[in-house]
Amino acid sequence: MPETNPDTHVIDFRAAEQLLAARDPRGAVKLLDSVIAAHPENTAARLLRARAFFAAAQLRPAELEFELVLEREPDNAFAHFALARTYERSGRSERALRHFRLAAALDPKPEYVAAARFPGPPPAERG
User: What does pTM read for this prediction?
Assistant: First the structure.
């Protein structure tokens, strides 16, 4: 087994980002497994692995990783949004809506707000 050091983990993390961008989520997960084994507290690596699991349609592992990220960073709007997408793909729309709304409340990006489906004003007030 090759010797690893902190530089190796940075290289693996960056390579995993590239693999995910190149639509090889399973390859990204393999690289990130060793990074997370060495640095289980690394939230960025866990978030990237969650995204890779989601892209590989491994919804339960993605859900667990996104939840772990949110335990550590409850104000991470992207993690709420991604967890909501994971719940949505799993057919759990009520749970998804809760996290879509949390994401939109934390960061009012148009994509987050649209997914949150906040009720609008009554028709008489729309102008």
Answer: 0.87
